[in-house]
Specification:
Helix content is about 45%, strand content about 20%. The chain is α+β, with helices and mostly antiparallel strands.
Length: about 140
């Protein structure tokens, strides 16, 4: 057993003595591999950040649109009568309680009457925009019951 270890150590000493360090080509290859890994990591992180920001923007827009539609459905010009057959628009909601809405969001409400029906059905279109660009448009109906 001792001879095997001695032989192995002798080979290791020869190997270490013959080693002259890394050459220029090996160094360039190592730097290129590390650089590629770093660039890939940075690109992945920035893509993830963009995806999170867009997802958050969509979530805020959906919450605002849903809140606005619920507000319109329950809005009453006349006490205890939430339906106004002459409405062309409805007021927009203020920032809902518990929401922390970033700056730049805008809500617009449009009322159309469904053609070939009586005036007891309104099509409500809520558009959420941010910095002048439409993010989300949601349509629903308000019915005189």
């Amino acid at each position: 057993m001792r001879t095997i270890i001695n032989q192995w150590l002798a080979r290791a000493r020869l190997w270490v003595q013959d080693e002259r360090g890394l050459g220029l080509v090996e160094s360039i290859v190592a730097v290129a591999i590390v650089g590629t890994a770093v660039v890939s990591f940075v690109v992945a992180m920035s893509s993830g950040t963009i995806a999170v920001r867009e997802g958050e923007e969509e979530m805020v827009a959906q919450g605002l649109a849903q809140t606005q539609l619920e507000y319109v459905k329950g809005y009453s010009y006349i006490k205890n009568d939430p339906y106004d057959p002459a409405a062309i628009s409805y007021p927009t909601v203020d920032e809902p309680e518990g929401y922390n809405i970033p700056e730049g969001y805008n809500i617009s409400v449009k009322v159309d009457y469904v053609s070939e029906t009586d005036t007891d059905i309104q099509e409500i279109t809520v558009t959420i925009s941010r910095d002048g660009e439409d993010i989300l448009t949601v349509e629903d109906y308000k019915v005189n019951r």
